[in-house]
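Entry 14. Structure prediction run on the chain below.
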Amino acid sequence: MKELDLGHEKIGTLIRRFSIPCVISMVVAALYNIVDQIFIGWSPAGAYGNAATNIVYPFTVFALGIALLVGDGAAAQFSIALGMGNKKKADRIIGNGLIVLIVSALAICLIGFLFQPQILALFGGDPEETECYQYANDYYHIICMGIPCYMIGQGLNGAIRADGAPRYAMVCTLTGALANLILDPVFIFPLGLGVKGAAIATVDGEIITFAMSIVYLGRSRNFRITPESVRLQASTVKNVIQTGMASLIVQLSIVVIIAVNNNLLTRYGYQTHASTGKAFGAVIPLAVIGIVMKVFGIVISIVIGISLGGQPIIGYNIGSGNVRRVKGTVQYITKLVISVGVTAFLIFELAPDLVISLFGSHNTTEYMEYARLCIRIFLGGIILTCYIKSAAIILQAAGNSVKSTILALLRDVIIFVPTSILIAAVSKSIVTMLWAAVISDVIAAGTGFLFVSSEIHHLEKTAEKDTFTQEASCT
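Output returned:
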């Protein structure tokens, strides 16, 4: 970490050094499921296969959320400990995080197998949709087998980045994703495994990422895994979990959005569309919302990658008391994520058909009509969403887990869920319910701006007080 000089190097240089590999890592991680959906969309399973992967997707996002809760929380605390020069504490944070990560991964895997029917039903799986449900059942069973490797590999990624090796962290996820990309078409088409083949390719990629992450533990730069460091300490685990809560909430919010949307689409998809007089049915909207959420996930992965890339810089300079550097880093990150949001907004509003065409040739009028509306309305507030997600990570990096958690919950749970349910119930339309996302973006973005501004102000006041105290003691 000293080699990177987090206290004096140009902020732009540090952001590029940390964020580019981090963005690639996050996007590649998100691509695991998207690659499956693209190839499945072009396979005989078509829209039924895409709807099936959308039903399973929330479970993998939940698993990722638990992994990031521990991994990002440990990474943030680790960076602060390094800034304070407390090597022993830094070792303990990573060691405790590793043990909690392993136990959590095994527990999620076990729960996944024990409650498979209930989990599929929770996320919109309907046994009466026989073909779709069978695809979902096959895909889920295989994906669940790889959950431990997936969670440990993704969870360790944060520690590797914070240790000053963002490129290695990137290579870990990139190698696994490339394996998935290569194996997906082989298993799906020549071997004729279809949806099952996509799941097998995904798990193979996750195993590769897991193995490479474990190898790094023996060659780390600033921490050592020792018998003492892995001995669980309640205060350390508590701090890690509190700090990483925002990362969990970000992922859980996606789970909640998909669960609510899937169930609303299943319920109201058969209702008459008010503007066209036609009923969409359940499979088409389920397939479309799955595609939209995956595209949404790519954009948010870029934003989170940029924000997490700045996390070690923010944490280190808070630990060393350099508030000016913290403020400069926050401003730099904010400009970048807003730029990402503007770019995404223009693509979604001006070229929705281009996005849709990546996921198969489903050229029915109903499919294309709903897909265009879904992209343009549901993702209409993407600029604000980018800021909201980034602000939550910035607050997390600053160690303010309360504000970070509130902000992460506000957009996707506190506002979106009741608003979408209310709009759908009143309008009986799976189109008008999409406006709940835009309403949530506007309210949460304003709150996020106030939270970040107040946090910076608090840090500045604390720094002034510390400076005054030091000057008084000298005199």
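The two ends are 35 Å apart (CA to CA).
Filed with the rest of this week's runs.
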